[in-house]
Amino acid sequence: MSLTVNLLLNGVALGMLIFLIAVGLTLIFGLMGVLNFAHGAIFAWGAYVGWAVYGATGSFILAILAGTATGFVLGFVMERFFIRPFYGNHVAQILLTLGLMIVLTEGIKIFFGPNILGFDKPELLQGVVTILQDPFPVYRIFTIGVGALVLIGVHYLLSRTKYGIIIRAGVQDPEMVQALGIDVRKVFALVFAFGAGLASFGAVIAGPSFGSLHPEIGMQNQLAAFIVIVIGGIGNFVGAAIGAVLVGITQTLMAYYLPEAALAVNVALMALVLILKPEGLFGLRR
Amino acid sequence: MRERIFNNKWLLAAVLVLLAILPFVGTSQFLMLMLIQVFILAVYGMSYDLLLGYTGIVSFGHAIFFGTGAYSVGILLTKMENPNLLFVAFLIAIVFSAVVALLLGVLSLRVKDVYFSMITLAFAELFFIVAEKWSSLTGGNDGIPYIRVPELFRERVSLYFIALGFLVVMFLFLRRVVDSPLGRVLQAIRENERRAESLGYNVLQYKLVSIVISGMVAAMAGGMWAVLQRYVSTTVFSLDQTISALLMTIIGGVGTLTGAILGAGVITFANEWLSSLASVHPIFERWLIFFGIIYIVIVMYFPKGIIGTIRDKWARSSERGKRDAAQTDQRGKSVL
């Protein structure tokens, strides 16, 4: 019993971690339809800047702020100067964002060096608590909490506020929104930047959970982000969160019972969902 | 007519003659090795162009076919212990990848656009993992070393001509395919899938044919790659392998076949040149960054690739070309 609970808890923690990586991409890829392969690189920049600020100031809150700001600025610049002419043009987006990904990743190697860097947990969040006789790291509880807060916050923003309505309407019918007197280009730029900011925010939270950083960290986790979005249903924000938790739990269970296949389970799950229900578990058929 | 300039028989023949006399004018072994790589990768790029440029489907799993070909040939040559059975190995590899392509197509062509890209990405990842984990067959992370190939395929000059011949034959074959009634239907699907469907064409079947042909050609390229390297590792199944097909096609020009050949050349030589710069100045240690910049510049300033851009310029300068330019413009828009 306690083993099951423990595995499930770990699965949820891993799922929330994946969700934090994917959350920005759900906006950029899910809502705006941009195949952004530079997402992982923005994630990595967030993590590295967060690491540097944390190391310099010792304040984890400052690290989160700095990391998030980095992603926001990077996202804004990317959208403004590179992505903007290529909405709806997937082939161009792939090549363009791959190029940006390489430039950003190599940039990390230039600024921070190509080696692995250790990322310690803040003192307050170290240690373990006992849940049903089994130890469980405090930081994972923190991750689950932050993931849940982000989920609720962004969901509220998208579905309950005026900005959310503008964003969703702008994505669905940009011309109509423009005709209503709203600068759609500005909306797109801000959504893209917001998505990038969320990615780098998630990166600073995820960094200590990984325990170490390396320049390819974003690329490594990017695929998982795409997978949970597709599983949840492209464009469905809550779906992505459920997809992430599903992937997290499956992966944890597989890692325990059938470690050989743990690597394949993500992609197998995605392939299965796409074959059986192409629009994703919670997506609407287009 | 629109293919007039770069599929000009005489220009292509001249390039071919030039390439054919190259080994006899004291060309270095190194350059020849590079060119052999270009020839093989060009075939791989052209096979991708059949999908991307002529049928209009964006696959993220093209490495599956390249890898299947490479591993099949590698494993068969090792197991059969007689290098002269190379052609049998190729035949089996081609048939096997045709089956793989058919299965992959049946499973994934039911979904469209991004969904198709994602599902092919998933399958490619599965193949990669299988190649890594099924080590009794594939050698796992060590790959398959010391593949024995016939003497003819070891000798640099003869291999050069075999690879060149391979490229020419495959180019003519694919040219024939895209100019055939079948190819016309594929292009109709690329332009407007619903229209093709309402005209009575079974779109799914045509797409399946396209992916099977593309898969078989890519598998041959993979097999040749295994023969050239005499070594196969999991990288043939990697996402990078798919991306390189995408790059070759886009850099050269989507939907041109010749573009993929040029793209293969550009990528192979740029790769070599940029990585060799690292010893010149420490700033070039991060030479990959230039590759990234090249991608960005190509998308932003040469969206039709090298061949497409030149062809447009050329077409504009001639009276008759104006109509062609309009056509290529439309093509560019719908594919890119």
TrEMBL record, chain A:
<protein>
    <submittedName>
        <fullName>Branched-chain amino acid ABC transporter permease</fullName>
    </submittedName>
</protein>
<keyword id="KW-0472">Membrane</keyword>
<keyword id="KW-1133">Transmembrane helix</keyword>
<dbReference type="Pfam" id="PF02653">
    <property type="entry name" value="BPD_transp_2"/>
</dbReference>
<keyword id="KW-0812">Transmembrane</keyword>
<feature type="transmembrane region" description="Helical">
    <location>
        <begin position="187"/>
        <end position="211"/>
    </location>
</feature>
<dbReference type="InterPro" id="IPR052157">
    <property type="entry name" value="BCAA_transport_permease"/>
</dbReference>
<feature type="transmembrane region" description="Helical">
    <location>
        <begin position="137"/>
        <end position="158"/>
    </location>
</feature>
<feature type="transmembrane region" description="Helical">
    <location>
        <begin position="223"/>
        <end position="249"/>
    </location>
</feature>
<feature type="transmembrane region" description="Helical">
    <location>
        <begin position="12"/>
        <end position="30"/>
    </location>
</feature>
<feature type="transmembrane region" description="Helical">
    <location>
        <begin position="60"/>
        <end position="82"/>
    </location>
</feature>
<feature type="transmembrane region" description="Helical">
    <location>
        <begin position="256"/>
        <end position="276"/>
    </location>
</feature>
<keyword id="KW-0813">Transport</keyword>
<comment type="similarity">
    <text>Belongs to the binding-protein-dependent transport system permease family. LivHM subfamily.</text>
</comment>
<feature type="transmembrane region" description="Helical">
    <location>
        <begin position="94"/>
        <end position="117"/>
    </location>
</feature>
<dbReference type="InterPro" id="IPR001851">
    <property type="entry name" value="ABC_transp_permease"/>
</dbReference>
<keyword id="KW-0029">Amino-acid transport</keyword>
<keyword id="KW-1003">Cell membrane</keyword>
UniProtKB/TrEMBL annotation, chain B:
<feature type="transmembrane region" description="Helical">
    <location>
        <begin position="114"/>
        <end position="131"/>
    </location>
</feature>
<dbReference type="Pfam" id="PF02653">
    <property type="entry name" value="BPD_transp_2"/>
</dbReference>
<keyword id="KW-0812">Transmembrane</keyword>
<feature type="transmembrane region" description="Helical">
    <location>
        <begin position="157"/>
        <end position="174"/>
    </location>
</feature>
<keyword id="KW-0472">Membrane</keyword>
<feature type="transmembrane region" description="Helical">
    <location>
        <begin position="208"/>
        <end position="231"/>
    </location>
</feature>
<feature type="transmembrane region" description="Helical">
    <location>
        <begin position="51"/>
        <end position="73"/>
    </location>
</feature>
<dbReference type="InterPro" id="IPR001851">
    <property type="entry name" value="ABC_transp_permease"/>
</dbReference>
<feature type="transmembrane region" description="Helical">
    <location>
        <begin position="287"/>
        <end position="307"/>
    </location>
</feature>
<feature type="transmembrane region" description="Helical">
    <location>
        <begin position="12"/>
        <end position="45"/>
    </location>
</feature>
<keyword id="KW-1003">Cell membrane</keyword>
<protein>
    <submittedName>
        <fullName>Branched-chain amino acid ABC transporter permease</fullName>
    </submittedName>
</protein>
<feature type="transmembrane region" description="Helical">
    <location>
        <begin position="243"/>
        <end position="267"/>
    </location>
</feature>
<keyword id="KW-1133">Transmembrane helix</keyword>
<feature type="transmembrane region" description="Helical">
    <location>
        <begin position="85"/>
        <end position="108"/>
    </location>
</feature>
<dbReference type="InterPro" id="IPR043428">
    <property type="entry name" value="LivM-like"/>
</dbReference>
